[in-house]
Amino acid sequence: MEILKEELEKGIILITITKNIEIYTAPRLKKVLDELFEEEKHLIIINMEHIDYLDSSGLAVFMREHARLQKVGYNLNFININNRIYEVFQYTSLHQYIKLFNSIEEARSAIIPKEE
Length: 116
Description:
24% of the residues are buried. This protein has four helices and five strands, in the order E-E-H-E-H-E-H-E-H. The protein has a five-stranded mixed β-sheet, sandwiched between helices. It has one domain: STAS domain (Transcription Regulator spoIIAA), CATH 3.30.750. With 116 residues, it is an alpha/beta fold.
C-alpha cells in the first residue's frame, strides 16, 4: 500500500491511499496519521478513491483518529467514498461523526479556517 501525502494551502494535508485498508496495511496508515498529529497537522482530508475494502482494523484507525482530532477541535474528512465503504461507515455509525465530501474542492472550502 502506498500512502501519498500532499500539503495543500492553509496547512491542509491530502492523504491518498492506493490500496485497500486491512489488517496488514492499517498499521502503516496509523503511523502516517500519528506522525501528522505529532506535527500538529490536523486539517486532514483522506482520499478513498482507490479503496474498495476496509476491514475492522482500518475502521479502528479511523475511529481513533476521529476521537483524537475531536479532542483538539478538528474533524476527520473524507472524499471519494464509494457505496460499499459508505455502507460500512453507516453500519458502524462512523458516518455520523466524520465529514464526507464529494470533491477536494468541497472539502477544502469547508475546512479552511475562516479569516476573522
